[in-house]
Design goal:
By secondary structure, the chain is mainly beta. 0% of the residues lie in helices and 48% in strands.
Length: 123
């Protein structure tokens, strides 16, 4: 059972940056597709970005394209989400999730989830 741990959330002002981290102890972590999702109060959990396993192909939601960058460091068993030019509408709990085979944007494609980290952006 893979366990994912997110960190790096916090309270920032509009225009600031944050880097979220997703770490796992599972040695096969690097072979999983990793996605970032977010859930704002009263809203559905939505896809933010994903990164493939070996080649590391990336894909972003339109709402974050050009502002967020997903990357992975296989030597540290970690995936990162660099978030720049943050806006109040980016306020949410951010989750990382792992998928063994499917490069998807639907939360149903992901088998393992972290507990989430809160990101709050003030105007």
């Amino acid at each position: 059972q893979m366990q994912l741990v997110e960190s790096g959330g916090g309270l920032v002002q509009a225009g600031d940056s944050l880097r979220l981290s997703c770490a796992a102890s599972e040695r096969t972590f690097s072979s999983y597709i990793i996605g970032w999702f977010r859930q704002a109060p009263g809203k559905e959990r939505e896809f933010v970005a994903r990164i493939g396993a070996s080649v590391g192909l990336t894909y972003y939601a339109d709402s974050v394209k050009g502002r967020f960058t997903i990357s992975r460091d296989s030597t540290k068993n970690a995936v990162y989400l660099q978030m720049n030019s943050l806006q109040p509408e980016d306020t949410a709990v951010y989750y990382c999730a792992a998928s063994r085979f499917i490069h998807g944007t639907d939360r149903a494609h992901y088998n393992y989830w972290g507990q989430g980290t809160q990101v709050t952006v003030s105007s």
